[in-house]
Amino acid sequence: MGDTITLTSGHDGFALSAYHEAPFTPRKGGVIVLQEIFGIDKYVRADVERWAKAGYEAVAPAMFDRRQRGFSVAHDQEGIAAGVAHARATPLEQAMADIAAARDFLTPRGKVCVVGYCYGGSLAWLAASKVEGLAAASSYYGSMVQANAHIPLRCPTIVHLGHTDPGIPADEVEKAVKAHHPEVPVYIYEGAGHGFNNESPERYHEEAADLARARTRELFESA
Fold first, then answer.
1. In which order are the strands placed within the sheet that holds 3-8?
2. 92: how many CB neighbours lie within 10 A of its CB?
3. Mind listing the pLDDT tens digit for each residue in 148-186?
4. pTM score > 0.90 for this model?
5. What is the DSSP string of 96-165?
6. Domains located in the chain, CATH noted
């Protein structure tokens, strides 16, 4: 059963909440789980639990706490609009500092990896460059990856994309990443769209989600 903890950001000393769960099995390391635009909803909490069951201490920082504590919205047009507004109003340097706060919480007990989805997928890619001390990063369908494909990476990183994602041109993202980081695996999942890891009925693609999770676990275990 997860609990809520408090992290202190080095950006401004702000105390943000985070959903946390201890590993169910002998500890393999720590995982920072970075949310979609919908906040720390039941799907993020389910992903934290999934990582805990895989042997990781998992933490999902509430990236929008400064604007709205406890933010969690439905996957509808109103929820999308609210989440996009929060994401656009969140400075990237602030987000990186909040991720670093989660890293600092986990680091005393071993290696720390990061995984992110949608908005969090972009942040995971950026964190692989801008946040020191991460062992590995797994980025799922982040819209900012293509524009930031050139940035240097501090840790082993992989990228997951759905081929039918209407908002992210998977083939173009792969081309951009490979131009700057030929060593980075970019996995494109046929028949999967945006948010395929999220178990909401309208987005979930079980085959793609299972394979991407297996690849991410392999990366984290080898880091």
1. 3-8, 15-21, 56-61, 29-34, 112-117, 136-140, 157-162, 186-189
2. 13
3. 999 999 999 999 999 999 999 999 999 999 999 999 999
4. yes
5. HHHHHHHHHHHGGGS-EEEEEETHHHHHHHHHHHHSTT-SEEEEES-TTTTTTTTS--SS-EEEEEETT-
6. 3-222 (3.40.50.1820)
